Amino acid sequence: MNLLNAFKDLAGDQLADLAGNFIGASKDETASAMDQIMPSLMGGLLGKVTNESSASGFLDFLGNNNLDGGLLDNIGDLFGSPEKSSGLLGMGGTVLNFLLGNRSNAVIDLLTKVTGLDNTKMGSLIKIAAPLLMSFIGRKAKSDSLGAGGLLGLLNSQRDYVKEAAPAGLLGSLGLSGWGDQVANVANKVGDSARDAADTVGRAASDTVDAGKSGLQKLLPWLILALAVLALLYFLRGCGDDVADAAKGAVDKTEEMAKKTGKAIGDAAEATGEAIGDAAEATGDAMKDAGEAVVDAFKSIKLPNGQEIKYKANSMIADLSDYLTGKESDVKRRFTFDGLNFKTGSAQITENSSAQLDNLVSLMKAYKNMAIRVEGHTDNTGDAAANLKLSNQRALAVKQYLMKNGIAAARVSAKGFGQTQPVASNDTEEGRAENRRVDVYVTKK
After folding, report:
1. What is the spatial distance between Cα 140 and Cα 126, in angstroms, rounded to a whole number?
2. CB within 8 Å of 307: residues ≥ 6 apart
3. Residue 32 contacts by C-beta under 8 Å, 6 or more apart in sequence?
4. Which of 14, 168, 398, 411 has the smallest number of Cβ neighbours within 10 A?
5. Beta strands 334-336 and 437-444, pairing class
């Protein structure tokens, strides 16, 4: 169970409306800010509750402060009078101190930078959110009769959800940066697999020397596997700095495997005659062609600030990069994401979208005068008003991603157009797919 999504489904829309009115911000701004606040609060809780003893202490805290779900029964009443709203803020201060302690100000400062809200509004908003989220967890613990062990298990199951939703820099601020070790572990496993594959290829090559032509047939599948592993790891190395660093050892091992394979092919060809030599040469040519195809599929460029980015050829980032380095200083252009996806029917960006978004961040950091408008669009399926709302939420989600990765809010505007600006016919599935899109319109180069 994803507690963050479950809470948002229960109270998110109403809470954004009421809290926005209270702090003097729009509903959309408040909803976007809440999307950053909730994983921050949950991250603070996960950093505090790490064993059954601390889980028991948290259950005591929930009970002593009546955080058992009652606050969620009538959220509107919490803002019904100055006394009630003041009481909510007071309770929020207590919960915030319990969750974050002396890290509270650092987290609020981080959220202020990420969301664009001022520090005072953010301070009020996080105090509003904290007791409501804890009350939701208290209700879950009560309804499921969770003891310390059960609660600890539930909270530990939220780590991946918090990592995915947390604003950049949050885990470090909370002392949870060690969660990232999983990336290195995965890369190490890939490296071990590459090493084992190299040993297997070496043994297969030795068998080929002894077995003649029939041995080559045994060797070819392993050559294909070696090429596939090598291409995969080079792809991973180009997909982001974190994965690149973690996968470096695996790539090095795979390169060593490729060298062993080449030597094995030479030995096999020499031992088994001209026919096998011709076959080995053909295999080598195929590997070379495939390797060149992998290289051609990706481009790299060094930006004006010295950073190098890698991206797919003929992609949106490729076109945008060419445009930014060109001479068309006064021409405004629109570019459509081709590597950005959302979970069905929502504005939640999927994990596989980060590569293209991160490249856009890098371009905007390199071209400091660049300003954009993120435009959301849908097909004509369903209610027009709902489509307009969803397209606006998706545009805002992209803006929030850029902001939490260091792009100033003033450089990015966001607007949803719903189904009003199709680029293809809505009469076919292919056309509807084209119309479900997010564009980047460069307003200043």
Report:
1. 21
2. 362, 365, 366
3. 115, 396, 397, 399, 400
4. 14
5. antiparallel
- DSSP state for residue 167 in the 8-state scheme: P
Given a contact cutoff of 8 angstroms between Cβ atoms, the answer to whether 393 and 343 are in contact is no
How does pLDDT run across 417-436, given as a tens digit for each residue? 999 999 989 998 888 989 99
Helices then strands, each counted (H, E), the chain = 18, 6
Q: Where are the domains of the chain?
A: 3-175, 181-300, 325-444
At 5, the pLDDT band (50, 70, 90 cuts) reads: very high
How much is the pLDDT for 22?
Answer: 93
pLDDT of residue 178: 52
Distance CA 160, CA 171 (A): 12
Rounded-to-integer distance, Cα 230 and Cα 236, Å: 10
Backbone angles phi, psi at 406, to 5 degrees: 105, 5
pLDDT at 298: 65
Q: How far apart are CA 445 and CA 443, in angstroms?
A: 7
pLDDT digits (tens, 9 = 90+) for 225-272: 555 555 555 554 444 444 444 444 544 554 555 555 555 555 555 554
- Expressed in angstroms, the distance from the first to the final Cα of the chain is 44
- The pTM is what? 0.46
At residue 91, the pLDDT reads: 93
Rounded distance between C-alpha atoms, residue 361 and residue 343, angstroms: 22
Q: Is 80 exposed, middle or buried (0-12, 13-18, 19+ CB in 10 A)?
A: exposed
Cβ atoms of residues 403 and 441 within 8 Å: no
d(CA 266, CA 251): 23
Structural element, H or E, at residue 194: helix 181-211
Domain 325-444, CATH number (from 3.30.1330.60, 3.30.310.250, 3.90.550.10, 3.20.20.10):
3.30.1330.60
CB neighbourhood size of 420 (10 A): 13
Do the Cβ atoms of 302 and 308 come closer than 8 Å? yes
Beta partners for 223? none
Nearest residue to 381 via CA among 345, 426, 343, 340? 426
Tokens at residue 225, please?
Answer: 């596997």
Residue of 10, 29, 32, 9 whose CA lies nearest to 21: 29
Among 361, 387, 385, 386, smallest CA distance to 374 is for 361
CA distance 315 to 301: 14
* Residue where the block lists tokens 């980060």: 354
Contact between 419 and 131 (Cβ < 8 Å): no
**Type of residue at 64:** N
